Each structure stands twice: as C-alpha cells, then as structure tokens.
User: Fold this.
Amino acid sequence: MNTTPILRATNIVKKLGGKTILNDVSLDVHKGDVKVVIGPSGAGKSTFLQCLNYLLPPDSGDIWLEGKKVNARDTRELCALRQQVGMIFQDFNLLDTFSIHLRPRIFRKLQHHIAKVTGLTQADLDKGEPIVQGLRRFMQWCGPDAEFAEWGMDDVPVLKQNLYLCNIDESKPTIWYDLQQVFLREHPRKEGEGMTLESVVTRLGLPMERQFHDALSDTLYTADVCRMLDLRAGLAAYPTEEESLRASLCPTPGDYRDFEVFRGYVEQYTWRTDPKIYTMSCPECGAPLKPDDVWLKKGSNSWYTLSQCPHCAGSSNAAGKGVFQRYKLARRDGLHWSYARCLQIPDDASLARWEKQRTAQLERMKARAEKQAAE
Assistant:
C-alpha cells in the first residue's frame, strides 16, 4: 500500500507586512482524504491555501506533489502543480494567475524605494526572465481578446510602452478599465479618504493576509474589492474614451458644436500643424474660421482660442462675436495622442473672461521677451 501523501506541505512560513501569518505549518493529504481548515478570520486559512499552489510563494518550507518536491522556479513544474491543485475562491470566483520576475533590459539597477516597498532584491532582478521573452509569454497567456482592468490608469500604458520598446505588438489590449472609477460609482469619496488599494481594502474591512506592493498580491486584492461591487453594472456604465473627452471638453451648461475626436498621433502638438485638425468651419455659414494668434491653456492638456468667421463677424447670428475653438489632448495608452475638438458659441461672460485672460497672457509674453533681450 502506497503511504506517500498526494500533497504535502512542510514547515511553511509566510510573513505579510512584517507580520507572521503562517509559522511552521505542515499538512499531509492522502488519496481520498477530505481536510477542513478551521479558524477565525485573519488566522491565515486563505494564505495557507494560496501557498499550496504558489499563488502566494511561501517564505520558507516546501510543497510536495505525489512525492516530488515542487521547484517553484521552474515554470513547467509550477504549471503542473496548479493543474493538480485547484482552488475555488470565496464567492465561487474562479481565477487564473500569471506571475513572473522580469529582468529589465534598460534600467537594470533596482531603485532603493522600489526595493523597500516590494521586498525585491537586486538578485531577484538579475535572475529574472529576459523582459522580451517574459512579455511574450504574458501576452500569450492573456490571449487576443482580453480586456484589462487595473486600479488606476498607470499599468496598461506602461505595459504598452514596454511592448513597443521590445518590438512586440502594442495594440492589445484595446479595452481596459480604471477600477477606481467603478469603485467610486458605488462608494463616493469622502473628504480625507485615500484611493490607494491598501486604503480601500482597509475601508471595506477585507482580510489583509497578503503584502501590498507585490504585483500578484495587489491583483488578488483588486479582485477582493471587485467582489464587493456590482461589477457588471459598473463596467456597463463605464465611459468610452470619446465620452470621457466630451465630458471634459464640453462641460454643461454651454452651446457646443461639431465635437470630433482624432486618434493615433505620436506627437503631442500635431493638432497645431495638421490642417485637418487645426482648421474648423463656421457653424453658421461653413467658411473656414481664423483663429486668434493667442491660445490659452486650460488645465494640463486643454487649449482654446477665439476664432472669427470672415463672413459672419459683426453680424447678429451665433458666430457674429466669434466662436471659441477648443481642444482636449489625451494619451490614454501612454503612446498615442488623441485630440478632441469642438466649437463653443460664447456668451458675454465667457467673452469677458477671454479678453481678460488674453490680455494677461500678452503681458506675460512681453515680460518674458524683455527679460530674454536683457540677458
């Protein structure tokens, strides 16, 4: 009779955030066994189960499958383990995971702050998989139709930039979501409340059994937060890029005309030199508008000026006092610029603001020119 356990965990130790969650925990599971792990919330039950198939790598200790010690550094062995040791999460949410250490090709020295918050060492970085090979594996794991969701809007642009630098198709994913926006739809932010993943996990009272600032752990925490949301409704209501640009460029109230979006530009200021984007037509007669020489910046990436129609100027129609020509720039994927533009029919108050701000801008330009001439 074979007495070798099908699954064995020996002397498992796991610390999260400086706190010891598992201390020298061992388990044998023989064929036909049914094991139950019981304990209060926060005792480490989920952490232990995730260590069994290396969703959370143990700090020390070993996992054995059918009498063979698992080498977690061997991707094939790790995949074989996960094929044999399945896991059903609370609320029956099934997850697959991908974890890899990449070896950078350009910035090869570990920055001290990154080392502090992640626990990574220079040795971890040096023994990682080459970034080109690792990125190809990751995109293959994702598949061609994957939609991404992230906490904030930084990770996907950085991914796309790295794909581009490694000469890998950066067009995918085409759809991704900022889960902070989905969260705020159900839980409006109160004064003083942070939006970091750790602060939201704390606010929701979720178990904190994994360390933060670890890519896989943060992904699992994000999944924990999503289980607390009406995710289907949140994603259905999520604005498209065009809807976001329209909301930013055309706030209510206001009389806006001819909204349009141009996509896929590498240079930030192509909108100022490309006649197709720069030239707009009078909303009354269709003649080309003539923009003012002064453009005012509004916010980080919005510009506007007062344009005149040579035929309608001075008339009593909507374009008689000029038309505001507005642009909003966005680089959502970190690589390509989108330009949204529209016309706005001005009222007396907005014309007065324009004249005041234009005068101030001309004075600043004059002062800078005089300073440069004197140097």
